[in-house]
Amino acid sequence: xxSFRTVLSRTTSSWRLVAVVALVALLEGGVRIGLVDxxxxxxxxxxxxxAVILWPPVFAVFGLAAVSSMAxxxxxxEETRAEVDVAESGWDGxxxxxxxxxxALATVGHWVAIVLGAALFLVVDTPIRFVLYxxxxxxxxxxxxxxxxxxxxxxxxxxxxxxxxxxxxxxIGRGVRVTDAxxxxxxxxxxxxxxxxxxxxxxxxFVGFTAGAxxxxxxxxxxxxxxxxxxxxxxxxxxxxALGLSILVTAGAVWLAGALGLVLDRFxxxxxxxxxxxxxxxxxxxxxxxxxxxxxxxxxLVVAAGAIRANExxxxxxxxxxxxxxxxxxxxxxxxxxxxxxxxxxxxxxxxPDEEVIYEFRIDRENRHIxxxxxxxxxxxxxxxxxxxxxxxxxxxxxxxxxxxxxxxGEPSPEAENWTVVAEDDDEITLELTDPDDVYFANQxxxxxxxxxxxxxxxxxxxxxxxxxRKTFSHGELRMNVTDRGEPGEAYDAHLAYEYETDVTVDRxxxxxxxGAGEWFWRxxxx
Length: 527
What we know:
By secondary structure, the chain is α+β, with helices and mostly antiparallel strands. The chain is built from 20 helices and 13 strands. An eleven-stranded antiparallel sheet has the order 8-7-6-5-4-3-13-12-11-10-9. Strands 1-2 form a two-stranded antiparallel sheet. Strand 12 (472-484) and strand 13 form a beta hairpin.
């Protein structure tokens, strides 16, 4: 066997081979861009990502099978002899008869690669995320990471998994019988584990390069957009886009050529098959017992990872931070401690005889469930579903908690300042605001003088009670009554009350149906 550097050098030195793999890379990228463009009016970004991943690489299978013999000859540097052998074998005339088998391999092989890619993603991603949660870096898992990360991870895993069916594609392309090609592919992990590791590293290297090229191109395009540059009548951002696509096509061609050469050099038979030899050559033995053990082990790991993710088994820090002495910092800390806990928040109209509930918000951080109620409209969100009138399989919890503040409507802002401690004992700490400007900012987030031409304040105060033991909010009240002498009839009159409850759970509503396939998908993959 040649070194991989030698194989790569030889495969990329043949202009015919490079031209074919470049065309394959262009077609595979083009069909996915066309797929996105066609489906865009009908589907969201998430399902477009799924469609791009699920589309089988038909052009790659046909193209790489067609040039397998050429690639093997280039690696062996025996083009003249190989052309005679191939001509005698009649393989050039048989390729049309094997298109159906190649098409089936492209489709079924891709399904297998997707399943293996998903399994690989779960096994690799779960411990990484678990450690990051344990280290307190759960904020890294933003909405984009949680929703699009699984598709990217499955896609990368599928590329790696395609190495095995890719061996069968290369063997069929050389004229080997379909059954013998599959046996060679299945036996490859045991017959050449180091070569399989090299192919995996080569694929991951291409993935890393692609990610880097995408990031650089995206930043350059944004810079061009902000600068509003043009090239004649065309927006200048088309230049880095075109350059980026050209680089990716070139890199894809090099990756495919190198992968094909590596497969043929490390996994295929050393000589081109003939009609007789392809029928009589002894197949490589498939270690059934080892294969069964590996399947059992991988299945166990996937099931364990899936169970961890579906059951929300992850480290979560809900312990409160100590309360500082400074009143403003104390209020902000109590606010953060309340955010981090499993809690319920109720915003009440204190002017009503029965203090009617205006809005209620409940969050169960350990299970990632949220429910809200406002004017008779109830919502329920998990990390696998959004339910706002009708259920939708989307990671709603991440969407609801994406911003720095949770949607506790009507609550005094955590950025409010000039609090004073007016009462304190072993059970409760009472904070108070009395300046009208501070109270208005805490309630409305604006400036009182800018909101009213000539404000006249009749009453303005806010009190928030902190549970000294739990270090979270217990309850509170806010009163604001202001009229505008410059604009008769303009007034703001609010008397609000707040209630907090900790250690709550959020259960699935009775009117929500059992989880469907989409919800189960997000339960497992949105970890």
